[in-house]
Amino acid sequence: MSLTLTAEEQAVAAGQSGQGAAMAMRIVAESAKLLGAPRLLPIASAHIDGALYHGDSGTLFAERLVEGGAQVAVRSTLNVGALDLMGCSRVRLDEPARGMARRMMEAYRKLGCEQSWTCAPYQAGHRPAFGTDVAWGESNAVVFCNSVLGARTNRYGDFLDIACAIAGRAPDYGLHLQENRRATLVFDVSALPAAFLASEIAWPVLGSLYGREVGNAVGVVAGVTGHPGEDALKAFGAAAASSGAVGLFHIAGVTPEAPTLDEALRGERPEAVIRVTGEMAARAQASLSTAAASDRLDAVAIGSPHLSLAEFDTLERLIAGRRLAAPIYACTGRHALAELDRAGRRKTLEASGVTIVADTCVVVTPILPEKAGAVLMTNSGKFAHYAPGNTGYAVLYGSLRDCVESAVLGRPIFTELA
Amino acid sequence: MRGQLPQAVPDAEQGDVLVAGEAGSGPALVLSAPISFWGGVDAKTGRIADVRHPERGRSIAGRVLFLPGTIGSSSASAVLMELVHNGNAPAALVLHEPDAILLLGLIVAKEMGWRTPVAVKLDRSRFAGFAGREVSVSAEGLLESRGRLTVRTARRRPVRG
After folding, report:
1. How far apart are CA B25 and CA B10, in angstroms?
2. Is residue B6 part of a domain?
């Protein structure tokens, strides 16, 4: 079926609303043709991942839209950039890249995007209503938006996210369609010990395993008793979207499109049931570490996705006023930073040896010192996945409690084993 | 066969144009595994940087690149557009199936007024016949190969917008 544009969409593409708007509409329409979408649909909001500097071409594109007079048509939050504009941490990005990264962030501001600079916009007040169509980028935000909020988005890539935000339209296909949101696989965790399921590490570890097992299919997790909390779902989704191309998951009895297992499956038989064993979970946990036995610890990184205030509460409780021997890089957004500043909590954290990283994070831009053979510890499945390739640091995976105890001691220590 | 140059075997396949662009020719690089452009290909040089990829260390710049599959990083489009902009894009892209995120890099580069290579769709079962040969791809999607590969590199001139 070929793409049909409305008269209004055609007029915008032809330049009726300016050259920037025309360019955006043509990009959305060309993508829709490639995807085989029959039409465009109106969207309620956007989350833009395209403002992270990968090279000059992306900056020139954003500036071309600004020159063409383009403005976003819907509420649009920004994902992380390559710089910490709040000045909490030092980014080792040299000129001319630094200047181009700054120009890029500035261009997105001029397009009318909110300066949220966070990969957890859903904890910074951007929560689309259940069932609404939106165009979100950033894999963890996409999966949270679909799975936990029940709004509908595909995995929008760089350029298409901002083009959709300006056009106020997205290709009508994929996860925007009800029939593609049905679970076809069951990921059954009921055989796992209750103590493991109640632990903090269960969610990033199971997320990592889930992503590898289901790939880009829609699955439903069965065997979870009780809501594990929003930060646990955030960690599960981020890990799943790192190890697989997961855009939507369901958890029976927890997420909004899965009041029951049967409803997630829409009454049909699943194509496969993955019965998770303790051994599978242990292997998944082990695979998150690349530096299996190390006495060395150079840094701890937490906050992928960005830390919520509740997670800062836990961090403070675990540090308990002690001085850290190894630095903890705590990545977050302005929404949490403002609150930490107001209450004087940031000063206390920094005095104990925590480096707050705002607007960006340690795996997308050079913040960690360059060191040969360095070892990073994290409680984030997503950091564990990307840190070795993007930072050169080998990774040790552990709970937040173990991360903090290790940072205090200056060497890795594991007290909580699966 | 040793010591004897293989016969020039003209071979042709008609692909479907996915994104229109300039005809291109160069040595074929047939990837034996899917690739993620973000993290997998160096955006400055076009070198395959993924240490787990079988063709790691090879460059896609100036090559007719045959992609059996892509792993969908949402920044693949940014990497491909950056390669177009700095002159290290492939001479042409041949994909087993359309990847909207990757090809968006070409769509946006065209909107920027930059010269982009043609991208065509061809079943991956037809890829092997092109391996190691000099291949040209017409703007209409006709792939032709001739002889065995002798030229090592063919770089596109940098394009500035």
Report:
1. 14
2. no
Q: Do B77 and A31 touch (CB under 8 A)?
A: no
- Do both A165 and A196 map to the same domain? no
The Cα–Cα gap between B106 and B21 comes to: 8
Q: What is the pTM of this model?
A: 0.92
**Do B101 and A390 count as a contact with CB atoms less than 8 A apart?**
no
**Final residue in a domain of this structure, among A237, A259, A287:** A287
Chain B residues whose CB is inside 8 A of the A19 CB are none
The CATH number assigned to the domain holding A398 equals 3.30.499.10
Number of helices (H), then strands (E), in chain B: 3, 8
Which CATH number does the domain housing residue B20 bear? Answer: 3.50.30.10
Tell me if B118 is assigned to some domain: yes
Structural domains of chain A, count:
3
Query: Rounded to whole angstroms, how far apart are CA atoms A401 and A403?
Result: 5
Q: Which residue of A has its CA nearest to B71?
A: A245
A49, A58, A389: residue with CB nearest B74: A49
Range of the domain at A272: 182-287
* B112 touching chain A per CB within 8 A: yes
> What stretches in chain A show pLDDT beneath 50?
418
Percent pLDDT > 90 in chain A is 93
Percent share of chain B, pLDDT over 70? 84
pLDDT tens for B104-119 read 999 999 999 999 999 9
Beta strands in A35-172 (DSSP E): 40-42, 45-48, 75-78, 135-136, 169-171
Q: Which residues of B are catalytic?
A: 73
ipTM of this complex: 0.85
Q: H/E element holding B95?
A: strand B92-95
Mean pLDDT of chain A: 96
Q: Which of A76, A80, A100, A99 is nearest to A89 (CA)?
A: A80
Residue ending a domain, among A177, A208, A240, is: A177
Q: Are the CB atoms for A163 and A51 separated by under 8 Å?
A: no
In a domain, A2, yes or no: no
- A39, amino acid identity: R
- Residue B87 in domain: yes
Taking the CA of residue A276 and the nearest CA in chain B, the distance in Å comes to: 25
**Which of these, A235, A415, A212, lies nearest to A308 by C-alpha position?**
A235
How near does any CA of chain B get to the CA of A229, in Å? 28
> Looking at the domain assignment, is residue B85 inside a domain?
yes
Q: Which of A196, A251, A250 is nearest to A227 (CA)?
A: A251
Number of compact structural domains in chain B: 1
CA–CA distances in Å: residue A84 to residues A247, A330, A337, A360: 28, 13, 12, 6
CB contact under 8 A, B39 and A389: yes
Question: Is A61's Cβ below 8 Å from some Cβ in B?
Answer: yes
